[in-house]
Amino acid sequence: MNSEIKPLIAGNWKMNGLTEDLSQIRSLALSLRNDPAHRCEVLICPPVTLLAQTTQICLSGAVVSGAQNCHIAQKGAHTGDIGASMLADAGAQYIIVGHSERRADHGETDGLVNAKARAALGAHVTPIICVGETHAERLGALAMTVVEKQLNGSVPALEIFDKRVIAKNLVIAYEPVWAIGTGLVPELDDIKTMHAAIRDWLVERFGEEGEGVRILYGGSMKPSNATDILATANVNGGLIGGASLNAEDFLQIIRSACD
Ligand code: PGA
Q1: For the chain, how many structural domains are there in total?
Q2: Are 15 and 47 within 8 A, CB to CB?
Q3: In the annotation, is 195 catalytic?
Q4: How many whole angstroms from 192 Cα to the centroid of ligand 1?
Q5: Whose CA is nearest to atom 3 of ligand 1?
Q6: Tens of pLDDT, residue by residue, the chain (259 residues)
Q7: Can 204 be counted among the known catalytic residues?
């Protein structure tokens, strides 16, 4: 991992978690109080129903809270939707946008993801923009082309950042769709190649500032493979689904990044 970039280990709880499951977050926050977690940033994105409570719990430990989606508007007549400023009000410091499950289940396009990322920035919340190819695209040697197209369409233009430090206001997550929740992970060399290509893209778009943007890997990261993945060049943390639901597993992954 690039030692100049503080790694981000992010848990994406997806549509999982009831009040009783907050005990996992309590236990995580408690463990991290005396852990070397300051060497990395730890984030939990629970379902929005648990966001405010998660924020409260996180205040006592070295953990921050985030959200999994937002609307493109901050407020208005959009029944059932939630604006980025409302998520910020509930304590979210990050918002995941363009996760492949939303792209697939809700037909989210690159243009919409871009608008959501801009909405997050408008609420002073850092967007975590997800990109990644399907299995068919990987087999067809199209992974790079697909990811580049997603980056071109989903990442807001330089002007949108309005003199903000890009590295603090943007995170990219490379999540091969076929690796999410399947137990499959790409070869380390493939992760390295893709992350290097994303870094090149960031530098081309943002100049030197692109060097500091965190690029997370996501897709079946677990305690048994985290050390190797997180040691790969240009992997600056992880976006973890299943293994973030259990405090003990998540802690092991955090320790792989921070120890
Ligand atoms: P997974 O999910 O770790 O369960 O594969 C990752 C993600 O979808 O963010």
Answers
A1: 1
A2: yes
A3: no
A4: 19
A5: 241
A6: 455 899 999 999 999 999 999 999 999 999 998 765 678 999 999 999 999 999 999 987 789 999 999 999 999 999 999 999 999 999 999 999 999 999 999 999 999 999 999 999 999 999 999 999 999 999 999 999 999 999 999 999 999 999 999 999 999 999 999 999 999 999 999 999 999 999 999 999 999 999 999 999 999 999 999 999 999 999 999 999 999 999 999 999 999 887 7
A7: no
The residue from 41, 108, 137, 175 that is catalytic is: 175
Does residue 54 sit within a domain?
Answer: yes
Index of the ligand 1 atom closest to the CA of residue 218: 6
In a domain, 228, yes or no: yes
Residue 31, domain member (yes or no): no
- CATH, residue 201: 3.20.20.70
The set of residues, in sequence order, having a beta carbon less than 8 Å from that of 76 and lying 6+ positions away, is 83
Q: Judge whether 150 and 197 are in contact, CB under 8 Å.
A: no
242, 12 contact by CB (below 8 A): no
Ligand 1 centroid distance, CA of 181 (Å): 5
Q: Cα(218)–Cα(243) distance, rounded to whole angstroms?
A: 11
Q: Within 13 Å of residue 245, how many CA atoms lie on the same side as its CB?
A: 13
Distance CA 215, CA 236 (A): 5
Domain residues for 220? Answer: 40-243
* pTM metric for this prediction: 0.97
Closest ligand 1 atom to the C-alpha of 222? Answer: 3
Does 226 map to a domain?
Answer: yes
Which residues does ligand 1 sit against, CB inside 6 Å? 12, 175, 180-181, 218-221, 239-243
Rounded alpha-carbon distances, angstroms, from residue 151 to 73, 74, 182, 246: 22, 23, 24, 31
Out of 71, 99, 133, 195, the active site residue is 99
